[in-house]
Amino acid sequence: MPVTATPDISVLVPVMNEQGNIRQLIDEIAAVYADRPFEIIYVNDGSDDGTADELNNAAAAIKQLRVLTHERCTGQSAALRTALYKARAPLIAVLDGDGQNIPSDLPALESALLTIRPAQGMAAGVRVARKDTGMRRWASAFARSVRRALLGDDHPDSGCGIKIVDRDLFMRLPFFNHMHRFMPTLIRGEGGRVVAVPVGHRARTAGKSKYGILDRLFVGIADLFGVIWLMRRRSDPGNVTEKFSTEQVLNKNPKSRSGKKPAAKAASAVRQKSAQKG
Questions:
Q1: Does residue 160 sit in the same domain as residue 43?
Q2: Which of 87, 115, 150, 160 is 20 to 30 A (C-alpha) from 134?
Q3: Helix (H) or strand (E) holding 41
Q4: In the listed set 233, 254, 269, which residue is the last one of a domain according to the structure?
Q5: pTM for the whole structure
Q6: Using one digit for the tens of pLDDT, what is the confidence trace for 70-119?
Q7: Where are the alpha helices (DSSP H) in the chain?
Q8: Between 22-32 and 106-114, two packed helices, what is the crossing angle to 10 degrees?
């Protein structure tokens, strides 16, 4: 399949110091979409281990892989934004780069997203049998209860990294550091729908987490008040309609474009027939 083909889906994977987790995850993603046009966009967010070498080797073997590199580490949300601006497909899949999300769950997420058509939105994973420490699960549960109380976010696993989003909607979301943790709230704030989909989860086999439990907890609370501020200041115009002028309608209908208006065109045809009879 030529790399120039417009992809059906773009899979975005931000990574920072994920040596040992690169090639297997890329191969799994490629296997899921082997019969469709797709692209995989990795963003190397300032890694200083062997991540860059592993990505370069993978790119030489997998033509659908694109590798973007940040000169310095800017965080997961910024890396996602970099990839989003380069993505070409109407559907955007997002995966964590640590290998704990399972690419074979992506088709179920896409199917769930298609059930809400014609609405736009996001199908977001809910980790079943989560392979994390008890302390990390407790911190996630606490953060979830706070988001539910203050934001009305009833998604059962906002921290899950695997999701599929309509690109147009994703592009409209406000950007800030750590915004990826609040995507269900932000999606709904833009009028989109959020569908929860059970997904698998597996233990990390290489590298280590980039987030400490307390760091994630306290930074998340600080961000929470910023999201509350954003939601209170958003303005919803409701349904937007457009009134077309007569000229615009004619331009949209090539069959009626002859340099004359339809009524004048009909009158001209009658005169021509009369002249022929005479």
A1: yes
A2: 150
A3: strand 38-45
A4: 233
A5: 0.75
A6: 999 999 999 999 999 999 999 999 999 999 999 999 999 999 999 999 99
A7: 22-32, 51-61, 76-86, 106-114, 134-151, 167-172, 183-189, 213-233, 246-252, 262-277
A8: 50
